[in-house]
Amino acid sequence: MEKAHAGGSGFLDGFSSLFGGFDSAPRGQQTPPLPPPLTSLTASSTRQQTGDFNQGSVGSIGTLQAQQTEKTIKEEFQKLYQFLRAEETAAVRKEAALKSEAMDTRLVELTTEISSLTDNLQTLKMEIKVDDMTFMLNVKSTLKKFIFNLPDPADSIRSPFRRVQTHWEPVIHSLEEDEGHHPIQDSQKHKKHNCIPINEAAEPFRAHLSRKVMNLKTKQGSLKDEKLKCDKMANHVKLQAQQTEKTIKEEFQKLYRFLRAEETARIDAVRIEAALKSEAMDIRIVNLTAEISSLTDKLKTLEMDIKAEDMTFMLNVKSTMERSQFNLPDPETPLGALLDEAKHTGNLLFTVWKKMKDILQHTPVTLDPNTGGSMRSISEHMTRSTTIDKCQTLPKNPERLSNFKVLGSEGFSRGKHSWDVEVEGYWAVGVAVKDNLHRKIWAIYMCVCTGILRELTPDDYVKVVSEDSFPKRVRVQLDCDHGILAFFDLDRKKPVHTIKYTFTGTVFPYFQDNVKILPAEWSVVQRRPT
Prior knowledge:
It is a single chain. The chain is of the alpha+beta class. The protein is 54% helix and 12% strand. The protein has 3 domains: 2-100 and 246-323; 112-230, no CATH class; 369-517, SPRY domain (Jelly Rolls), CATH 2.60.120.920. It is elongated, with a radius of gyration of 48 Å.
């Protein structure tokens, strides 16, 4: 804009000097009537001066337009930058914080459960190891504390629990009263007593409590495994958050670069147009100034000729009349002299967004890395799945599939949906139910054993689709409402196979081995009010 500003400033100085010239013209002098040609000349001169005034107005307005247009462009792009900054930082950290908090809460709960269970185990082991007398004296409280699923005493008359639970108090009583007889050694002497030896009474309880110890140890092991799994998942969430933030920042940097380049290009366009139009206006002003100067000189000459003596005037009248004959056109301000503000700022945000589609890609389906097997590498913004040689260490979350499989991130339960997939090697594409994947898959796949294309459904996995024609790019079309899953060969432009099934729940896009989801074509549609 330096050149534009210089042109505008120069014009304002020139305009002031021209306006001052008009003010300093002689006033109060009575000019004798001139012949019609002379009157025409004076009018033309006045129009030239008026035209010069208009040109100056246009030039100053053009400079002001350029400044205002630049300001508007910068303000509009600031809105875009603010939107992007808010969008960039909004989602990921919030979700990561929520999931980390949930995982921390789960870890605290598991730690508490494990600690409580460990204490109970230690107490139970100690109570089992005591002597029979102490054991039987405390067995009732032990049962209340640790036995939660004891058999019902009424379940069987022969149940040792029924016999012992009914008579454990008389056993203790007989020990206190029959000092000369030990119930373990003299059990035959107590045939009439409704009791059994204390070691026989303690035996089933010890056995059952020992089994309870084993069960609690198993439960303790499960809790520790679950805690270890949750701990790995908590670390994985943090890693995911870091990687996702990095990816988001990289993607937003592309948008920032695009916007900065677009902003610079638009401001440059304003400055170039302003410079060109200022230059054109400067040239116009120079030409008008030259014409005005020429006319001023001729006016002075004519005025001097008119003021000459009659004899001299009449001797030169012919040449004077010839010099006064000018057919100058009326000065007109050219069309389009002002800056085209509408072109530069009209629908600016929409225009930029519409242009942004050239750098954006949209895939109707993206892969869910949380479902990918340990031999899967998910890349290219969740659109490519490739087989890797080394098994990854991944959390064993419930959504995780076996080695070579992965699901789409969004499920479908109604309507029509389609996505294009590039395949290679031994592959499979289709749909599946997430919570019942082993039994509910509808797909076509390249069989590893036979090298032919087969159908995969809950009822069949050997039905042959093709033995010699194998697509490289497949379009999957899902019609949930009519229960149709169709596959098309994009290169040959012909159908490959159709599966008909009434889908009652939500199904997810299903992929196996090396696949790449292709971007879909999209456009901005402007709807006009009717």
